[in-house]
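Q: Predict the bound structure with 6-O-phosphono-alpha-D-fructofuranose.
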Amino acid sequence: MQNKDLTGWLAENKIEKNLSDIIENIAFSAVKIAEIVRQAPLRELTGYSDSQNKHGEKQKKLDIISNDIIVEQLSKLNSIAAMVSEEMDEIIQNPHLQEADLVVCFDPLDGSSNIDVNATIGTIFSILQLNETDLHIKESQILKASKNQRAAGFILYGPACLFVLTVGKNVALFAFDEMSQQFLLVRNNIKIPEQSNEFAINMSYQQFWDEAIKTYIADCLAGENGIRKKRFNMRWAGSMVADVYRIFMNGGIFIYPALKKPGSENGKLRFLYEANPMAMLVENAGGKAISSKIAIKDVVATNLHQLVPVILGSKEEVEILAKLYNRAN
Ligand code: P6P
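A: Predicted complex:
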């Protein structure tokens, strides 16, 4: 029996047209990005461009190309009030001068440090509902709307092109089918295992961790003879989309913490288009997502490109680390 395609799934879940149009146009953009990523080595599209983003990070050629594909595609819709991209300093206003109330925040190509080594990378997005429509959207309106995420998802450009999506309830998984050129449903209600014995963290920053992280990782490394009484494995893809997808499949905990080094006091991941959407996805799949001492969904957004510490994954593991943070008070 033919798997249901994304359009059919959106219709079956009665997703309103404005929202489903945006999701389908993001999917359309992702298919174009996947193709360009695959061809990059042959078309000399790997490596760095001459520019850097707002965070002073040099931009990969594919960062800019992916960004432009999404901005061009979504600019055709008059249901989008504004866009926020990791690769653009300022808000991208809706060119249609029609009042709209949905805002799309996205990281067009997450994990781009992995592009040149052919590792899995991806696109992350969050669709926010503004409290009021407007012709010119202000930053303060978007920051307030971060509490009203209507949908979140990420697309993986890996051995398979996969789309993980939530529109407020369960988390669905789609795979791109070359034959039909459609994203077809693979799983309709992913649940993250509550328990796990796998952690994902960049161990090279150990000297910069706070006490809660040091204790948690030490307890994991102590294995059967330690207080956790079980062995732990470690994984670190260096690509959030790849590390988080593994957690949807196997369980685990992903940690990008605050680091005691200049410029990393709030970690490296951005709230609006990395932490906030991933937190919605993980919690809708039965996991938990915190930012040091508070839930990521309770973070007060202060600017478009704000950095926040990120800890998310299997409920039991995140709760153990949350207790260590509360004890450290
Ligand atoms: P580090 C990729 O550049 C990214 O933003 C995330 O996808 C990933 O989890 C993180 O940075 C990796 O950071 O410091 O380990 O290179």
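A: Helices lie at 6-12, 17-39, 61-74, 139-145, 211-221, 240-250, 271-284, 315-327.
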